[in-house]
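Hypothesis: this fold can be encoded by more than one sequence.
Test: take the C-alpha cells below, design a sequence, compare later.
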C-alpha cells in the first residue's frame, strides 16, 4: 500500500519532481482524491501526458511511462464534457477568467455580470492555475484544467466542461506539465 505521508513529504521536497507543494490539511472530500502515485490505466500512456478519466474523477500526469501522479478532479456536467485529444499550449498563474458566450447564454443570471471578465485571485473560478487546451488546428477550445475555490466539487460532474482540481493540487501539477503536452480527456462511459 502506498504511504501517503511519504508521498506528501516527497511532493514538498524542493527539487524532487517539481516546485509545487501540496499541503496537508483537513480533507473536504474522500482520501482517494488526494494526490498519490499510481500505475497508469494503459500501457500506451507516455511520460509527460495528462489523462483525465471522468468516470473515476481522476487526472493522471504521467511522470514516467510506468508511473503517474494521480489527482482527484471534478469534470463537466451532463452535455458539457468534451472528450478528445488536445495540446496544452498555454499556462497561467492566477489567470483572468471570462465565461464563454455559451455559458452566458445558458445561465445569464449567473454569468452575464462577468461578461467583461474577472481578474485572477482567490474568488476567480479558474483558481490558482490554469492549463489551456487547444485542438489540432491550434485553436483554443476554451477547455481548461484549472484550480477551484470549491474543493467539495472534486469527484463530481458539475463544471461547464473543464477539469478542476483543488488550488493546492493544481499548484502541484502546474510545474510538472510542459507546454506542448498531450492531454487526453477520455470519454464518459458510466457517468452522465
Amino acid at each position: 500500500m502506498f504511504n501517503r505521508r511519504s508521498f506528501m513529504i516527497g511532493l514538498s521536497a524542493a527539487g524532487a519532481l517539481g516546485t509545487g507543494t501540496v499541503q496537508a490539511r483537513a480533507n473536504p472530500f474522500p482520501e482517494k482524491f488526494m494526490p498519490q502515485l499510481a500505475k497508469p490505466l494503459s500501457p500506451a500512456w507516455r511520460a509527460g501526458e495528462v489523462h483525465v478519466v471522468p468516470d473515476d474523477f481522476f487526472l493522471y500526469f504521467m511522470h514516467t511511462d510506468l508511473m503517474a501522479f494521480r489527482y482527484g478532479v471534478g469534470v463537466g456536467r451532463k452535455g458539457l464534457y468534451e472528450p478528445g485529444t488536445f495540446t496544452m499550449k498555454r499556462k497561467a498563474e492566477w489567470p483572468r477568467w471570462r465565461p464563454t458566450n455559451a455559458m452566458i447564454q445558458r445561465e445569464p443570471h449567473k454569468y452575464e455580470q462577468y461578461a467583461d471578465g474577472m481578474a485572477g485571485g482567490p474568488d476567480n473560478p479558474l483558481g490558482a492555475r490554469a492549463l489551456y487546451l487547444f485542438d489540432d488546428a491550434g485553436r483554443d477550445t476554451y477547455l481548461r484544467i484549472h484550480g477551484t475555490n470549491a474543493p467539495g466539487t472534486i469527484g463530481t460532474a458539475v463544471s461547464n466542461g473543464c477539469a478542476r482540481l483543488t488550488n493546492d493540487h493544481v499548484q502541484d501539477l502546474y510545474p510538472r506539465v510542459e507546454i506542448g503536452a498531450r492531454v487526453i480527456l477520455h470519454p464518459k462511459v458510466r457517468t452522465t
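Confidence is low (pLDDT under 50) at residues 1-24. The chain has four helices and eleven strands.
Hypothesis status: open.
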